[in-house]
Specification:
Strand order of the largest sheet: 1-2-3-4-5-6-7-8
Number of domains: 2
Helix content: 25-40%
Shape: globular
Order of helices and strands: HHHHHEEEEEEEE
Strand content: 5-15%
Length: 235
C-alpha cells in the first residue's frame, strides 16, 4: 500500500468518527493518479456511456435472461485482475462522478466487476464522503468487502460467498437471491431484507424497515437475535 493511500485511509477513518457538524473540516480525499487508475476511469466512463445507450434503446446487444443488464454491460468494460489497492483508490475518486446520470446504479456494478475479477481477497471501499449512496455493492460477491460509509439498495445481491460489512446504513433488498456468505450492516437497513435469499447469514445491528416475504433459506439476525432461521421467520 502506498504512503499516499495509507495517509488518505487514516484521514477517512477519522472522518467516519467525527460528529456530523465537524465533517466539513475534512476535504475530499486526494489520490495520486497513475496509469492503472486512468484505465479504470476510462473503462468506467465507457461502460457508463454504453449503459445509458442501452437504457435508451440505442445499444443493440442481447443480454442473457439470467443476467442483470447493468452487470452484464459492466463486465465487458471493467479491467480484470485489478489490485485491491487500486480499487480502494478508485472508490476515493467517486466524488468526481456522483452527479453523472446512472451513477447510483452503474458504479456498484462496476465496483463489483472489478472486485470479482481481482486476484485479491480483501477489499475496502470508501463511501463516507459521498452525498449519494451506491446500489449493487457486492453483486455476485465471493470476496471480503468492507464498506466504510453507507450503501444503497441490493447490497450483496446474488452473493455467492465471502463477507460484506457496511459500517453505515444500507437500503432495501439486502442479500437478494443470496446463495451463501455473510452480510453485516452496522447501521440501519431498509425493507425487503433477504428477498428470495437461499442461504447465508445477514446480521442487522441497527433498525430495519422489514423482511422480505420471500425468504427460502439462510439465517437473519437482528442485534444478535435470530429472527429468521433456515428461511423460516421466527418473529
Amino acid at each position: 500500500m502506498t504512503d499516499n493511500l495509507e495517509t488518505t485511509l487514516k484521514a477517512l477513518d477519522l472522518f467516519g468518527k467525527l460528529d456530523p457538524e465537524k465533517k466539513v473540516e475534512i476535504i475530499k480525499p486526494k489520490v495520486i493518479r497513475n496509469e492503472t487508475l486512468d484505465l479504470i476511469i476510462e473503462k468506467y466512463k465507457e461502460g457508463l456511456e454504453n449503459y445509458g445507450l442501452y437504457l435508451k434503446g440505442k445499444l443493440k446487444i442481447k443480454i442473457p435472461s439470467d443476467e442483470y443488464s447493468c452487470y452484464y454491460i459492466t463486465k465487458s468494460s471493467a479491467p480484470s485482475k485489478t489490485s485491491s489497492d487500486n480499487i480502494t483508490e478508485f472508490s476515493l475518486l467517486l466524488g468526481e462522478y456522483e452527479n453523472k446520470k446512472y451513477f447510483k446504479d452503474f458504479i456498484g456494478c462496476y465496483l463489483s466487476a472489478l472486485i470479482n475479477s481481482s486476484d485479491n481477497k480483501d477489499f475496502k471501499i470508501f463511501t463516507n464522503y459521498l452525498l449519494k449512496t451506491i446500489d449493487h455493492i457486492g453483486y455476485e460477491n465471493a470476496k471480503n468487502i468492507d464498506v466504510n460509509g453507507n450503501a444503497g439498495n441490493w447490497v450483496g445481491g446474488y452473493m455467492k460467498d465471502g463477507k460484506i460489512t457496511v459500517t453505515g446504513n444500507a437500503g432495501d433488498w439486502i442479500g437478494e437471491e443470496m446463495k451463501d456468505g455473510k452480510i453485516t450492516i452496522n447501521g440501519n437497513a431498509g425493507g425487503g431484507v433477504g428477498d428470495r435469499m437461499k442461504n447465508g447469514k445477514i446480521h442487522l445491528n441497527g433498525d430495519y424497515k422489514g423482511l422480505s416475504k420471500y425468504i427460502s433459506g439462510g439465517n437473519i439476525y437482528h442485534k444478535d437475535k435470530l429472527i429468521v432461521g433456515n428461511g423460516r421467520k421466527l418473529i
